[in-house]
Amino acid sequence: MMIAIAFLAGVLTILSPCILPVLPFVFTRAGQPFTRSVLPMLLGLVTTFALVASLTAVGGAWAVQANEIGRFAALVLLAAFGIALLSPRIAAFFSRPAVALGDRLARRTDGEQHGFGGSLLLGVATGLLWTPCAGPILGLVLTGAALNGANVQTTLLLAAYAVGAAFSLALAVMAGGKVFAALKRSLGAGERIRQGLGVAVVAGVAMIALGLDTGLLARLSYSSTTSIEQRLLSTIGDAEAQAVASGIGSDAVTLVAQAQANSYRSSLPIRGHIPSLEGAVAWINSEPLTVEQLRGKVVLVDFWTYSCINCTRTIPYVRAWAERYADQGLVVIGVHAPEFAFEKRIGNVRRAVRDREITYPVAVDNDYRIWRAFRNRFWPAHYFIDAQGRIRHEHFGEGGYERSERVIQELLAEAAGARREDVTLVTPDARGAEAPPDLRRLRSGETYIGFSRASNFVSPERVAADRPQDYTVGNPRLNQWGLSGNWTVGSEHATLNQPGGAITYRFSARDVHVVLGPAEDGRPIRFQVMIDGRAPGRDHGTDIDAEGNGRVTAPRLYQLIRQADEVRDRTFEIRFFDAGVEAFSFTFG
User: Model's pTM, two decimal places?
Assistant: First the structure.
């Protein structure tokens, strides 16, 4: 199912502005034999993208550096290719090997030879440069790669995504080939078409070299396909539920007997059985629980991680449900599956549980064994299990609280054999970072700072993976950010090496949160936050004062801005007065 979803998401890339820099390279094959020219070009693109994206998602600095070298070589090759398309004389003027190769490729583009090898090489170069906009589905695949490491499934999913994009590109090329052929016949414009393609290729190379494919174009397409992809993702749970239900077999007889015995039975579908809860490295607020111990209880399993803002905003509801329905037979189990390395420290998790006033059992799933047993993919994720150990409902992400609580009420009524007339719902008093987001005015999305998942980074200095470097930042545009000072950017976070460094972000949202950690020795880090060059005043968050002053004392999510008045595009800066701070990600609300 995920392979099919990834393929469809790839098909949708043809609607995204992020595909624009790639189109000129692809259209150089328009009007040529499909199997000997177009197909090998697309094959090279798919294979290279899948391999490079797999390595980058799970690799270290070596993978990033290798990819940068490959991208540079591809830019040189394709620039030479574009110049050769512009004019054979220009190609002949330059004697460098890369240009000569581009000249040969150009001759195959417009002449009688339609070589497989040249097309494949063009596809490989394009695959090295293609960086699609990371919508929900691609983000899901890359997150899974980071969690589970390099494996065949990750590469297959990335390949499926690329194949989907290649499919839509192939249709575009075939349609474009007919247009080009008609122009040649009617206008005799073959040379002009070739020169036009040369201009487009050179422009595409320039766009990618300037970072417009991941900057401006990524912002333009931020919401263009997101809603469609989100609807695709929502089908996963239903499809898997049907697959599980189709394999229940003899349980159908049991269901009939239970329906006759109970005066009330919920109409919720059966999505499978609760898997084992073994594998947690520790339990908080409880001794280890087993599936057998939970028989006869309605169970809510909540997958969360303590620095995740989406999880933080769902906790008031989960906490309220645990308190309200405990005496009716509900057991809530929080499964803490870490996203960042510091969330694997049990002491940090215990502190977060205490700070969030969580009293229900929490399994510390550092090795993702419970995560994988549930085949989970999201933070937060809620699984609703009936008194007989069957999964009856799932919900992923924030929201849907009314529906979720109705499910709890239905399953408790089914366990008791009688429907209750109590239809009231909890109304938790959520404050600070736990308060619901202002989605109507939210225009900025989660941004990672470590190089493995960073995007929209605009400091003119290229990221020096895993080594110290001085950075500067000017005036970023909306949803762009940069570093200033001496930082070491690692796969997961950036570490400040000298006092006075800062992070600047141009955002549009009511709230700004940053996941930060203190120095390795635990020493607190002093910092100050500014908005548009001024102290935040009444727009300050819960972790700073009106002057913007705060301290990083533990690795966690810090709420730094909560705007009290108008929400508009603003520039956020956090400057650190001590070295050693670790910065992980931005989230908004």
Answer: 0.59
